[in-house]
Amino acid sequence: MAATVKCLVWDLDDTVWPGVVLESDGGAPKPEALQAIRTLDERGILHAVASRGESSATTAHLRRHGIEDMFSAVEIGWGPKSQAIRRIAESLNIGHETMAFIDNDPVELAEVASACPQVRCYPAHRLAELAELPEFTPGTVTTEARHRRSYYRAERARRAGEAEFHGSDADFLASLELVMSVRTATESDLARAHELTVRTHQLNTTGTTFDIDELRRMCSSPHHEVLVADLRDRFGGYGTIGLAVSEIRGGDSVLRLLLMSCRVMSRGVGTAMIREIVRRARAAGRRPAAEFVATPVNRVMLVTLRFAGFEVLESDGDRMLLICRVPPQDIGGTGHVEVIR
């Protein structure tokens, strides 16, 4: 089954609206375009623009018709649209296999299909049916998904703030006023927790996935602890960005899964989450331990565990069991993150 589309990239002239803005005949957005934009946005699918034209005039047209804020990335110019799509993928930190592109011009569609073969391409005459296609229909629509656009727009503001910031990276992180809230997962968190397990790969300690029923059982089990973490800063919220599943094994609290959204990779919050997990285990009189299973992309999580004071106790091929011998207050690297419970 094809992956669900995470971002739909739009051509504008003669696709979103009839006519061409620079030729002064660009009209109001087509009703079926507005319907598709709003419906997919509610499902957590991002929108972006890769269109030919003059940026200021086209952006003014988007603003005039009240849809500028619907797009998380905008590329307007005269270069190949495949290059614009590559820049969009990089700015949103998503893979080409989760992107789609719609355009009225078959030549533009062919150029993108040739240069970016993983990007799914759709002619503009299929506009009205997009929302009915399975690749645009996530299995579950979480509260997180409904706010995804606002999270990405806040990230754009952060990047702009970082570009204008005069100081070191550490100083910029401190200026963000990061606050992470860690809490026991409830029923309302399960859909997002499951979504994280299937969407997050680089910042995942074991590559394990849990369905909602498994998570529900562990939440009600005295032998497990399921935690979720939210993050916010002075620019806005990131949403629920972390999940930790621990199993009580005698006197040990064994971290079976820790994952953090790739959106916060540069924020250094993984160590703060680990410190809170260690603190909770110690407070319950248990020894903190963690499983790690190597995958092709998750080495950064092993580095994070080791940096937080975890030592390898057992190793069997790609699978390790680590234990933490240091008290939580000695786990460094968390000074720029305030943790609340």
Element pattern in H and E: EHEHEHEHEHHHEHHEEEHEHEEE
- Anisotropy-based shape: elongated
**How would you write the strand order of the largest sheet?**
11-12-10-9-8-7-6-13
Number of discrete helical segments: 11
Distance between the termini: 39 Å
Q: Which range best describes the helical content: under 10%, 10-25%, 25-40%, 40-55%, 55-70% or over 70%? A: 25-40%
State Rg.
22 Å
Structural class: alpha/beta
What's the number of extended β-strand segments? 13
Task: State the major sheet.
Answer: 8 strands, mixed
- Unreliable stretches, pLDDT < 50, 5 or more residues? none
Rounded mean pLDDT score: 92
Tell me the β content: 25-35%
Account of the protein in words:
With 341 residues, the protein is an alpha/beta fold. Helices cover 33% and strands 26% of the residues. It is built from eleven helices and 13 strands. It has helices spanning 31-42, 55-64, 81-92, 106-115, 143-146, 148-164, 169-175, 190-199, 212-219, 270-283, 299-307, and strands at residues 7-10, 46-52, 73-77, 99-103, 120-123, 178-184, 224-233, 236-249, 252-260, 287-293, 310-316, 319-324, 337-340. The strands form two sheets. An eight-stranded mixed sheet has the order 11-12-10-9-8-7-6-13, with helices on both faces. Strands 3-2-1-4-5 form a five-stranded parallel sheet, with helices on both faces. The longest helix has 17 residues, at 148-164. It starts with 6 loop residues before the first strand and ends with a strand. The model has no long low-confidence stretch (mean pLDDT 92).
